[in-house]
TrEMBL record:
Catalytic activity: epoxyqueuosine(34) in tRNA + AH2 = queuosine(34) in tRNA + A + H2O
Gene (UniProt): queG
Family stated for the protein in its record: Belongs to the QueG family.
InterPro entries to which the protein is assigned, alphabetical: 4Fe4S_Fe-S-bd, 4Fe4S_Fe_S_CS, QueG, QueG_DUF1730
Molecular function GO labels: 4 iron, 4 sulfur cluster binding; cobalamin binding; epoxyqueuosine reductase activity; metal ion binding
Family matches, as Pfam families: Fer4_16, QueG_DUF1730
Name used for this protein in its record: Epoxyqueuosine reductase
Alphabetized UniProt keyword annotations: 4Fe-4S, Cobalamin, Cobalt, Cytoplasm, Iron, Iron-sulfur, Metal-binding, Oxidoreductase, Queuosine biosynthesis, tRNA processing
Cellular compartments per GO CC: cytoplasm
One GO term of the biological process aspect: tRNA queuosine(34) biosynthetic process
Cofactor note: Binds 2 [4Fe-4S] clusters per monomer.
Native organism: Robiginitalea myxolifaciens
Quaternary data: Monomer.
Binding-site residues for tRNA, renumbered to this chain: 220
Group of enzyme by EC: oxidoreductase
Amino acid sequence: MSNGGKYAVLIKAEAKRLGFLSCGISRADFLEEEAPRLEQWLKHGMHGEMAYMENHFDKRLDPRKLVPGAQSVISLLYNYYPSEELSAEGYKISKYAYGEDYHKVIKDKLRELMVIIQEEIGEVGGRIFVDSAPVLDKAWAARSGLGWIGKHSNLLTQQVGSFYFIAELILDLELPEDSPVTDHCGSCTACLDACPTQAIVAPYVVDGSKCISYYTIELKNEIPPEMSGAWDDWIFGCDVCQDVCPWNRFSKPHGEPRFQPSEALKGMRREDWQELTEEVFRQVFPKSAVKRTKFSGLQRNIQFLEPGT
């Protein structure tokens, strides 16, 4: 086995020890297939008010522009599927936001992995990415053989579905690349049929500006009145396309204590949400990704569902 092969075995073993579901490797080069897709998606305004998606177009498509001398992209998956959903007596928030903000949790683990790489392999340069830089996470994960892009545009894996975060290490270390897997969506259209706002405008194409996650998190202005009644109690994010996906029958609960919902969150009922104050918001979501929409945004989302509250 070459040195690169030994290093890849070491990195994957350490990733598993740190709790990652899986780890795959691809060569750091230009994403040729994704370039025209991203260009068309932006051209048709499917990013809505997410102007940041227009920035750093070249960096999104070429990791060597993010990390000088980059040779390998290591993609990692981290499970967030909960053992139980929040009470049906309250409103709905996306499962990924039940516990502590995933950026912090996963970055801590990636930093540990980076230290191990530098201790065991030597002087390796690179950067850590957790959904916070211009990196096309799903494209790299698919290239690395961790799954395929489903018709709902999320990464899907036969063994574990899609309820996981994707993160990367982009390194100046040459490693053997893994092979992509084939698409297993077949003729299924469950996600297209179930999307409450018809945001999946065609198989594999999501109009981000129509997605409930966009309206409840990204949109800073008022929610368009024509969306009234279009979704069922979601106030932060939306999991519908994943919930109906047959492959998520294989999802297993995560074992990450930091992703567990607080007792305060588990106890929230509809009237508690409606009477939410900024002080209680800070208590219920001290380290949560929900803080991204801010108290005012969450209040707007609840009022949209319950006019007059």
